[in-house]
Write a structure and sequence with these properties.
- By secondary structure, this protein is of the alpha/beta class.
- Helices cover 41% and strands 19% of the residues.
- The strands form two sheets. Strands 3-2-1-4-5 form a five-stranded mixed beta sheet, with helices on both faces.
- Helix 4 crosses helix 10.
- The longest helix is centred in the C-terminal third of the chain and has 27 residues.
Length: 338
């Protein structure tokens, strides 16, 4: 049997990621270019700048990944690309390159759901969860709990009604005058703070259901900072504790409601040490296993897109025609089962 190799292209926001996944050898190479420095002076992602930089980075990164894997472009069996959700212009860059490559090489292409990429990134690890499981997907743009029966069989149990938790981290960091990206900066400052100096609310834990809300937590941080501007570290600590405990409480509730004994946490915020500590402690208390991708694969990357696309492409799923279609808004529940 010929070794089926999938090239993955990630360009949904401000990181250009390329990965190669082999049927025989698993992940064989990946490269990432982050645009953090480009957007730093603006305090957030500028969509037009993100799109322009993806144009410059995609082809050199593909060349670098092929060199790392010691294969030729013609050895690729299929191309997977992030079709959504994300920034429309950024998605179009990766999609156009993917479709053009597939057309020129006469190989199939497949548009991948960005959040399915995050959800399945844990399958790049040696220690993998078994299906079914509950997934906590937490990033700058998404916060959701998903019941995962199998690949492509997803039921959203709850999601944020306003700010995603990563967005709340970034906005609170901005309130405190920290750098961009705000999430890691706030987490670093929180390590210097004392727990218990300020008591922040745990949003929506006193009502049934699994939805989230983080905009009020951000407002509480702003009001606290206005009164105590000299206590940044303690405010950062209080915010992080409230946010991570809220996520943990909802995860525990999701496991109880579904009867699952496995939790997967993925997305950029899943790299947060305080969140991992909360979830690990919770898992021991309820006799549940908790899995995470490695740190490099929590944030956006091409490896997860190569894997997610590969698992569908080897089952014959392809994007038909040469039309370039992206979906800036796209529900996980719309995906086809594998």
């Amino acid at each position: 049997m010929t070794n089926f190799i999938t090239l993955g292209i990630e360009s949904s926001c401000d990181e250009t990621g390329i990965g190669l996944y082999s049927q025989q050898d698993g992940l064989i190479a990946h490269q990432l270019f982050s645009q953090v420095e480009i957007h730093q002076e603006y305090g957030g992602v500028v969509p037009e700048l993100a799109s322009r930089d993806h144009i410059q980075r995609v082809l050199p990164l593909i060349k670098a990944v092929l060199e790392d894997a010691k294969i030729k472009l013609t050895d690729i069996s299929a191309v997977a690309y992030t079709a959504g959700p994300g920034l429309a212009g950024a998605l179009l860059v990766g999609s156009a390159v993917a479709k053009s490559l597939a057309w020129s090489l006469k190989i199939p292409a497949l548009g991948v759901h960005h959040m399915e990429g995050h959800l399945l990134a844990v399958l790049l690890e040696d220690k993998q969860p078994e299906f079914p499981f509950v997934a906590l997907l937490v990033s700058g743009g998404h916060t959701m709990l998903v019941d995962v029966e199998a690949i492509g069989q997803y039921k959203i149990l709850g999601e944020s009604l306003d700010d995603a938790v990563g967005e709340a981290f970034d906005k609170t960091a901005k309130i405190l005058g920290l750098g961009y990206p705000g999430g890691p900066a706030l987490a670093a400052l929180a390590e210097q703070g004392k727990e218990g100096v300020f008591k922040f609310p745990r949003p929506m834990i006193d009502r049934p259901g699994l939805d989230f809300s983080f905009s009020g937590l951000k407002t509480f941080a702003r009001n606290t900072f206005a009164k105590h501007p000299e206590q940044k570290a303690d405010i950062a600590k209080a915010f992080e504790v409230a946010a991570t405990q809220t996520l943990m409480i909802k995860c525990r509730r999701a496991l109880e409601q579904t009867g699952r004994k496995t939790l997967v946490a993925a997305g950029g915020v899943s790299a947060n040490k305080a969140l991992r500590d909360e979830l690990d402690t919770m898992g021991k208390k309820v006799d549940a296993q908790v899995f995470y991708p490695r740190q490099d694969f929590c944030t956006d990357n091409g490896a997860m897109i190569a894997l997610a696309g590969h698992l569908r492409l080897i089952k014959g799923q392809v994007s038909k025609g040469n039309e370039i279609v992206v979906k800036p808004r796209w529900s996980l529940e719309e995906l086809q089962a594998v």
